[in-house]
Amino acid sequence: PAKYLPELKKHWSQDGGDASYAFLTQAFILVNSTTKRIKIVDTLVNLLRILIEGAPDSLLPAVWLATNSFAPPYEPAELGLGGSVISKAFKNIYGLNAQGLKTLYNKHGDAGDVAFEAKKRQSFTLKKPKPLTIKGVYQSLVKIARSKGTGSQETKQRIVERLLQDSRSAEESRYIVRTLVQHLRIGAVKTTMLIALARAFLFSKPPDANFATKGMEALAKLKKEELTEVYLRAEEAVKASYARHPNYDDLVPCLLEIGVTDELLVRCGLTLHIPLRPMLGSITRDLSDMLTKLQGRDFACEYKYDGQRAQVHCDSNGKVSIFSRHLELMTDKYPDLVSLVPQIRGESVSSFILEGEVVAVDQETGDLQAFQILTNRAKKNVEIGSIKVNVCLFAFDLMYLNGEPLLDRSFRERRDMLRSLFTEIPKRFTWVKNLDATSADSEAVLEFFKSATDVKCEGIMVKVLDNDTKPGSGVTNSGVDDHENLEVEEEARDKRLTKKDRSTRRKALLSTYEPDRRLESWLKVKKDYSTSSDTLDLIPIAAWHGSGRKAKWWSPILLAVRNPETGLLEAVTKCMSGFTDKFYQTNKEKYSEDGENVISRPSYIDYAGHPDVWFEPQEVWEMAFADITLSPTYTAAIGLVSDERGLSLRFPRFLRVREDKSIDEASTSDFLAALWRKQMERAQEEEGAALDPSVDDNI
Ligand code: ATP
């Protein structure tokens, strides 16, 4: 994008360094008008470049708004805007009555689209408002999130109404509202933004020798392959920084100051009390698939405990922070773990970041307890004295020690340090159970796998121990459908690497800790997802546009049970697992956007979310799942087991289309509720203790 996009540039306006929100809106419109990733990245690069060069103070708020957030995940900030605030604002600002509002909602589904229509219809405004600015909108969000306590609802209402009032166009209103309901619906996901930032800074603030180029002119003179190389290095630097220090409040000012250089990782890298994005495991079909992949390598098999991942940070003053898999701060949830820290860290340890799985454990027997039990623990402000669900932290990695990041050390080294410098406390803090092996030890690995599933673990994690690369340890893509896109991004990135790089990478199953990456050096082998032998026959009713490799298809797909009493189809789960690429393709052809099998939001479906497409219900799919959970989001079987919550499925997996069944024969909400009761009885028998119904809180 050496030239600016004219369709964006012509909307550029600013006042004293404050870029207008209309400009950002135009970027959203352009991004929204395409599904092509290249076009999306180009638009964002243009947006960012113009801001860097013309209104650098507006850059950071624009990045937050374009990524549909306003604070990093580990800062507990929420807008806390109920649907009623938005509806009331629609009534007050657009003069809609309840019926008018309902009609618009039924027609459009999306609150932003409702705002767009309502604004268009508005015949007059009392006075032309001052243009909204990017900074102003961002600050409004921060104010909404900060207003707490008595009178906060009124304050929030006032800010929302002021934003709607000050929107000058229907499009601005649409994106303001989408921002307020936290569903922006533009394809600018995290990775796209990081790539765009890297490229924008490469052009606007060209680095020096670090990236082997000097300025735009030099970039323009590069051959295509060389340019790709420069892009890649810049992208890798920005992504690496964000994976270790995921906060735009730190990254963007740093980029403005020094541009994209290797210095970024020093200035904005791994930091105590800021969670790094965790390394992820790749799926394998089964043990033999895993053994083939790791041929010739030494690896550690570890129990894959069914609990909650925890990243524990401790500084030299003894301050402890604990973060979840999704980087939320959960120190308050685990005061018992915090209190263990002085005992577990050895004398030579001053500061550290370690990682492990928190599992509910019977303190008498030491037996592992089901994940369901862990979900019974309150999420916040847990008092040590009132803890009923006791936990053990099974530590598996050490990423930082005494002021030094250990990410570049081999897994064997990190594990050795963890186990030699920290102290076990039985049933409270210990190491994951492991077996070190090679592909030749298949019998022992099988035994180990069985022992893991015998104690209710999900399966095993398998991790390459050393960094040495031996030829022939080929990395292949398993082709197994996973429910995350990082693997896909990995694959895409792979495609952009030079031939030489690619072959080096393929040979190298790194044993370093690679934040936010799903490499083949961490493999997961799970027992069949279907721990429940029951299956459900569900009706596919809606879907979202896929991303990454699945961008051409529908994924995830929303499924429902039927309620014969009310005639409603009640949404029960989203599914992205078990489908082959061929199936996805056929599915997309069957439910093509302008085809006859796609409908507008039907009234007989009970689901509050906003899928991108609604299917005409006509098929029944047999689905496997791990277990059934109470859910605040899904309404299936609501009123049958809980008045407020419906039921949903954990690890749903597509098995096959039931050609022999019509939708009238799909599973009912009664049947789902009966399965839930059966599951709870089974759990009670197993645990010998009564379980409170728990909420699936996605831990
Ligand atoms: P994803 O990796 O796709 O996010 P997920 O979070 O649902 O998936 P899985 O893919 O099932 O989890 O497996 C990875 C998770 O397993 C880790 O995030 C961690 O919480 C858990 N886990 C349990 N035991 C271990 C272990 N020994 N090593 C690493 N992770 C473990």
TrEMBL record:
GO terms for molecular function: ATP binding; DNA binding; DNA ligase (ATP) activity. It catalyses: ATP + (deoxyribonucleotide)n-3'-hydroxyl + 5'-phospho-(deoxyribonucleotide)m = (deoxyribonucleotide)n+m + AMP + diphosphate. The keyword Mitochondrion does not apply. GO terms for biological process: DNA biosynthetic process; DNA recombination; DNA repair; lagging strand elongation. Residues 384-563 form the ATP-dependent DNA ligase family profile domain. Residues 686-699 have a biased composition (Acidic residues). GO terms for cellular component: nucleus. Keywords: ATP-binding, DNA damage, DNA recombination, DNA repair, DNA replication, Ligase, Nucleotide-binding. The keyword ATP-binding applies. It is an enzyme of class 6 (ligase). It comes from the Eukaryota. Its EC number is 6.5.1.1. Belongs to the ATP-dependent DNA ligase family. This is DNA ligase.
